[in-house]
# Entry
Amino acid sequence: MMNWEKLLLPEGFQAAAAGRQRSQFEKDYDRIIFSAPFRNLQDKTQVFPLPEQDFVHTRLTHSLEVSSVGRSLGKSAGTFLLEKYPALKNTQLQSFDIGGIVAAAALAHDIGNPPFGHAGEEAISDFFRFHPTGQRWREECSDQEWEDLTSFEGNAQGFRMLLDRKNGINISLPTLAAFTKYPRPSWASAADQKRRSQKKFGFFTNNLSDYRTLTDRMAIPQLAENCWMRHPLAFLVEAADDICYNIIDLEDGCTMGLVSQEKTISLLAAIIGDRFSPQKLEKYPGNRQKLAILRAMAINQLIEETDRVFRDSEPLLLTGAFDQALTDRIPSAAALEEISSLSIQKIYRSQPVLEKEAAGYQVLEGLLETFGTALYHHHFCKERFSGQNRSILRLLPEELALLSSQSAYPLLRGLLDFVSGMTDKYALSLYRRVKGISLPNT
# Structure
């Protein structure tokens, strides 16, 4: 059974003393928001790749909104935990500290996502699965390393980014644990396929020792070999994301004309319940204003419902007996499922989204083919290392271009850091230039 004192204050970690300007968790938030990987989210796909409309969400605006919801959920959970556990009252933790953990972890939840959204994850994985240039690396990698490469996962890339000191982040263990929704490596068999925490994987092979150290410090038990329980606050981070993408993707879909105003209002009204008033809604003159007020009311309702489920389930979270999405247990779960089903049909599979995702596949495959070939020839097939390869390598970040390791996996991890860290527009621009489709401005 997990213990909140160790989960929030692992060995060697102290709460902020009274009078300090910032707690450690506030520092976590600030370090994330000022980091380059977070800043790049301003031009990464949320739903609509390369959006031309200023009202469509990017990964940056989505992350800020998820963090705001996460802070509310975390602060309410903190109030509950400090009241329930007298030992926590003897620490210097405050409810806003726990809110800060969830807010920071939620802020970073998409920090490892590549360009072009989830299509970008599939494009990277498919490059190693199917493309001849990708497959030539197979014999240079272990089975575990190859599983990482053929199953690229934004959550695991985010874990790597948060640990990479060159990004200047270096967050605390509680925030890193709350960030990790899927606490196992790619190749570890899921302890139980029905457990939410085992749905995906959360870190790459070369970060396994980092996560094992984290669990040792925080006394997080294993479910099976190399599979751990979630930190309980990770459920709140997940819930904040679930709330935002369901409600706000629907709002974007309505604004784009993919879902009717009437249908959107009825879906949000089903969540708002008795507080929904058609008469009051008509007082707002514009459609955007109507959507904005309904969105705010729906999110507030979902926060209240999720908070109640967290409080009721908290003892089971500590033992690992509860392992499902909090939003699957709230009264509005059926309404969220209806929104999700409609979004898949009307938004995520709409013509503009599918067309731009298809373009994203071509862009990422082209970049990986170009840079992957140059790296492979330089390190493993020098007789084929050409002047073109040499020019291509000079476009890579200096730390990767100068990497002398003869081990393939570090080279490929560095290449994927470079490619997955690109914004959508930069990936498209670089693809055009390295393929000779366009030339740099002179």
Remarks:
- Residues 117-142+350-442 form a domain with the eoxyguanosinetriphosphate triphosphohydrolase fold fold (CATH 1.10.3550.10).
- The chain has 22 helices and two strands.
